[in-house]
Amino acid sequence: MLQRATEIVFATNFSDSSHAVIPTVAQWVDTLGAKLTLLHVYDANKTLYREAEALLRSFFAEADNYQHCDRVLVSGDPCEGIAAYCERRPNVMLMLPPSDQTGLPRPFHRSLRARLIKRLSVPIWTLGRSNVGDSEPSADRHIGVWLGDPEEGLSHLQQAARYASETGGTLHLLHVVDEINEGSMLKPMLSAAPMGEETADAWLKDIASTMKLDCKVEVHVAQGRVSRELPQLLRRSGADMLVLNQQSAVRNSWFGPEINPIFSKCAIGLICVPYYSRFEDLHRQVAESAA
Question: pLDDT tens-digit profile of 178-225?
């Protein structure tokens, strides 16, 4: 699905972060040979149509040089407008810049990115807030894949592998084993995740061999808190982007879904891939072989 995307939808609100990711959007358009759609959803109670249209026409002016580029203006709720556009089109990849960081907490804030990741069945590219201002696109030749709980499935790995194979990239399988504490004794009853680094290393290698991944694969394992170890694994692997499934990317809070803070701090682009049940049998086979 990732490698077959024929249309990239760049949802923009003309913020600083939207401008910062323009080089990355351009790189994805070139890599996939996809049509580009610049989409803006405006509030008709606050902005006139002609004002919103003028902003959209002036944003990313170089995009008009592409053979296939559309600018789409929609009024209403941003989440509903973006979702409705993407749901009507096949083989879409949505690019969502993060909100600009103000440094101030926003009580009762509902994450637009998290709501869309949870709702849509399309791959979604985004960034952690710490990346805003870094306008240099990566080569995307070292693709990290987060494999946390085996119960979350392997469909995102399958898509990342196909993309790596077609682009000549290297696939980096990443897993962090929980640090040892009193709660560790409950883990085998609640999850099929490996309990040690050697077991985790063997588990990831079994996955790679069972799926017959047609690209170079490297395995990276650490033990400790994920929030501390994952950024270090990413640096050591040299991954340019991280592919994860929507179950890992989003967590529920009192105010609705939000981006998992573990990944919102990652200093590379994130590709959030929807879960597909057709890989359940393969996942079960790999989990049983690692047990």
Answer: 876 555 444 544 455 677 899 999 999 999 998 888 889 999 999 999
Pairing status of strand 69-75 against strand 35-42: parallel
Q: Alpha carbon of 195 to those of 83, 149, 167, 180, 239: distances in Å? A: 39, 11, 34, 9, 25
HSE-up of residue 34 (Cα within 13 Å, Cβ side): 26
Q: How far out from the chain centre does Cα 13 lie?
A: 19
Using CB atoms within 10 Å of the CB of residue 54, give its burial: 0 to 12 exposed, 13 to 18 middle, 19+ buried: exposed
Does residue 175 sit in helix, strand or coil?
Answer: strand
Which tens digit of pLDDT belongs to each residue from 246-288? 888 988 877 778 888 888 778 789 999 987 654 444 444 445 5
- Strand ordering across the sheet containing 7-11: 69-75, 35-42, 7-11, 92-96, 124-126, 269-273, 241-245, 142-146, 170-177, 216-223
- Output the average pLDDT for the chain: 84
| Phi, psi (deg, nearest 5) at residue 70 | -120, 150
* CA 238/CA 252 separation, integer angstroms: 30
Please report, as a single letter, which amino acid is at residue 72.
V
d(CA 30, CA 124): 17
Cβ neighbour number for residue 113 with a 10 Å cutoff: 25
Residues 6+ apart with CB under 8 A from 106: none
Q: What percent of the chain has a predicted confidence (pLDDT) above 70?
A: 81
The H-or-E segment that residue 112 falls in is: helix 112-119
Q: Which residues pair with 75 in a beta bridge?
A: 42
Q: Which CATH class is domain 7-127?
A: alpha beta
CATH class, domain 142-290, is alpha beta
pTM: 0.85
User: Do 142-290 and 7-127 have the same topology in CATH?
Assistant: yes
Ordered by start, the domain boundaries in the chain are 7-127, 142-290
